[in-house]
Specification:
The chain is mainly α. The chain contains five helices and no strands. The protein folds into two domains: 39 residues; 87 residues, Cytochrome c-like domain (Cytochrome Bc1 Complex, Chain D, domain 2, Orthogonal Bundle). The radius of gyration is 25 Å and the shape is elongated. The structure holds heme C.
Length: 127
């Protein structure tokens, strides 16, 4: 009799533990979903940003970003320049130069993503 009783309560504890575990995983998924939605950039937006980079940025920096009116933005040109500086330049422009601010067009996360692309280098696969 005793044995049966404790067996039941063991099962109860186990069930509760499983429920808490599932709840935790659910919460974690929810949290990572929210974080992704916050900083993640959708594939469509990424395509738009690459287009912007080639067309709008390219009008000064050159279609292949080798430089023109604007300085070259090839990976080798950015070595040693901190992300914050480059992101800040994109968002706020550079006073007394032709580099305009893009705050209105780009979020900080998008500017940071563009800097990442510049560091990797644009390839023909990216349109
Ligand atoms: C109207 C011309 C123009 C356009 C359009 C333009 N830039 Fe620039 N950009 C410049 C110039 C000029 C500089 C160099 C400023 C200086 O002398 O410090 C510059 C500098 C930069 C730098 C800093 C490079 C370094 O080596 O410090 C980054 C990064 C940059 N631009 C990114 C962009 C991006 C991304 C876009 C498009 C969203 C863009 N630019 C559009 C003219 C332009």
């Amino acid at each position: 009799m005793r044995g049966r009783c404790s067996n039941y309560s063991m099962r109860g504890i186990l069930n509760t533990a499983v429920m808490i575990y599932v709840g935790l995983i659910g919460g974690q998924l929810l949290i990572s979903g929210v974080v992704l939605a916050d900083t993640g950039i959708s594939p469509q937006r990424q395509a738009q940003l690459i287009h912007l980079l080639r067309q709008d940025c390219g009008s000064c920096h050159g279609m292949t970003l080798k430089g023109g009116l604007g300085s070259p933005l090839l990976p080798g040109n950015l070595i040693g320049k901190p992300d914050e500086l480059l992101v800040d330049t994109i968002l706020n422009g550079r006073p007394d130069t032709a580099m305009p601010p893009w705050r209105g067009e780009l979020s900080p996360a998008e500017a940071a993503w563009l800097v990442e692309q510049l560091r990797e280098g644009l390839t023909d696969a990216k349109h």
